[in-house]
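Service request form, structural biology core

Requester: graduate student, group of Dr. S.
Request type: structure prediction, single chain
Budget code: on file
Notes: please return the result as structure tokens.

Sequence provided:
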Amino acid sequence: MIKEAIEYLANKVQAMNLFEKVYSLVEIVNDADGKSFPAVYNSNGKYQIIHYSFNNGTAYLRKNGVMQLSTIDIESYVGCSVYYRMSMPIKLVVFKKKNKLPIDCSYSEDVLSETILSYLINNTNDARQVLNIKQFNINFNSINSDSANVWDSETQGIEQKDVNFDIACVSFEIDLELIVDPSCLTNMCNA
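Core staff response, request fulfilled:
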């Protein structure tokens, strides 16, 4: 269910047609030189560094903390069923040249963040049906539209030469909240 929820959100970001490449799940990886950067885990301990397309836009999602779980009794809805509330902290990070956005000015990051916020709030009504779950909420906790701060929080020891005032870098701290039937959870024994 975690994979499906994250991929659902990545598909919604891709559907905005603002970003050439959307990575559904990356991790911040540390190399032997002390550098850290976002990368996609392939398998067998191997990672692939993401490739930024600043001109055409890059976005990625990554886990951003501990998932909270609780049981809820929704007897009033479905009889005597017990469901799980899963709250997954996710970070959505986006990069795009300001002159490739509809508005190229000092507020480009803010306009970009509001555009994404509005789109995701208004275009995820189908999540319950697509994911076959009882409830789906996207809770936006914070938006960081300080491009230099976003770059520094996602990388360490990586040259910032290509990320300057002409690149809009924005990050969103999000909680994906799902209410699911326990039978919908991935079971390694049946996979």
